[in-house]
Amino acid sequence: MSPYFESYLTVGTFAALGAVLVMVMLGVASVLRPTNPTAAKRATYECGVDPVGSGWSQTYVRYYVFGLLFVIFDVEAVFIFPWAIAAEELGVFGLVAMFLFILTLLEGLAYAIKKGVLRWE
Amino acid sequence: MTWEIDYLALAPELVIVVTLLVVLALDLFLTRPNKYWTATAAVAGTALAAIPLVILAVEGENVSMFEGSYVVDEFALVLKGLFVVSAYLVLLLSHHYIESERFYQGEYYFLLLASVLGSLVMASARDLIILFIGLELTTGPLFLLAGWRKGDAKSNEASVKYFILGVLSTAILLWGMSMLYGLTGEITFAGLATATAGLADEPAMIVAVLFVIVGFAFKISAAPFHFWAPDTYEGAPTPVTAYLSVNSKAAGFVAFLLVMYLALPELSEIWAPALWILAAASMTLGNLSALRQSNIVRLLAYSSIAQAGFMLVPFAAAAVAGTNIEEGFSATVIYLVIYALMNVGAFATVIAGANRTATGDIDGWAGLGKIDARLGVLIGIFFFSLAGIPPLAGWFAKFAMFRAVILAGGTATVVLAVIAAVNAVIALYYYARVIKAVWLDDAPAEVPARAETPPSVSLRLALLISAALTIVIGFFPAIATFVGDASRIIAAGG
Fold this sequence. Notes:
heterodimer, A: mainly alpha, Methane Monooxygenase Hydroxylase, Chain G, domain 1, 4 helices, B: mainly alpha, two-stranded antiparallel sheet
């Protein structure tokens, strides 16, 4: 076996051991524990609050647009933080580049505002 | 720390970026009757992007940036020229079409230009990550554009099918690329070319290369990965279909060829037979399916699948034979360029013909040549050129293809050449059928009323440019051999 696959052997062993461990723990627990189900115990666990409604629920479609806009600016943050740390080294070039990047994203925001996406009524 | 950036070499891309931002901004401030300004800006910006291309071509200097990941050489310039010209023609086709119905206009041009930007990036990409970004930027906007006729169920189907299969192919491609990186630790093509030497027997490497091939085969709609193409082509707005079958396909081809040729030359014993099968299957399946089509756009969709097969022939044949690979590569690129120019023209005649007869059925076009002689002549030019009849450009594409195959030699190569020759004859049948309907069939008793106003100036201009190119290249193939020379230089590692 080539060393390439040997290194994957470790991964395989680890996965197999993990599976065995879970099975053993669940198996031992099911043998040892008392079984006494009540309605309250069988209910879906929702942070300790009584579950409300069914599993299917409607979400306001507007959240979708907010989600998209959030992702854009979240990604922006991912780029800005490493840039901010190295800002002094990168100098004027880095500053201009980052401004161009932010302005491009701001045009997207301006587009969203102008199209009335952010209006909530 | 500063990057060495040659802004002149990046100028075509930068012009397109500025144009698409301007188009989006313009769209916000224009009232509906004035929206055509977004089209004007897009057309002007695309034309402007050609200027730095010409300057760079005249200077003739090779520029390599970002540690060899981004290269502007003659090969990249030729392809960028092709992408800019065909994008310009598609924009001309779109102008009237998008304005005549209640489409979103600014967004259309914004997305189309974003896709053009992706194809420009791809022509220069010399590492897997930049190549992937370029490829995604090319296809991403097209998922939306394919569904631009929002109220039409077929357009929605086109968009969803293209999206699902596009995402699937991207995932497979990315998986293959990640395995290539995992096995070699390299992402640049030059690095991969040296690091993959002697790894052709490694099972994981075979899987990686095959995944990359399958991913690209979806993008260029080569059989047996072509199922999305006919439905998407039929449902999408016709200018978008033209773009799909020309720019997006050419971009996929370029990426495919670059990866195989520059990054994995040492592994040709894995990918050469796969390419051989793709070429033979695409030609045969595409042509046989095209025989039975009654809708002109579906016919062109299957024709473009078959043409993808023809394009692969010289490169696959040379790679299988293991000789004269640079000849095969340059013949494939010549075919690609000529195909792109004549196919844009064919779609322009489809838009004009559908405008005139209010139908996309080939039977509905009966006698069109007698009603509108100029349009009939143009249909003749583009469809005969696609079939490869001299003196139109298509013959030189086929000539370059067969020449490269003969130079390569070998049994497998000859078999492929025979398949290609048989398919060229089959193809002539269905291309000629369209021309027969237009010229020989009797016109319906009552001349169909014009569905729309007469063809717009921009549509006429697009027809004129593509017809001129198709004829000129047919008479002066030297123009196309320049393309071949540029791709031979990349072969020499220059």
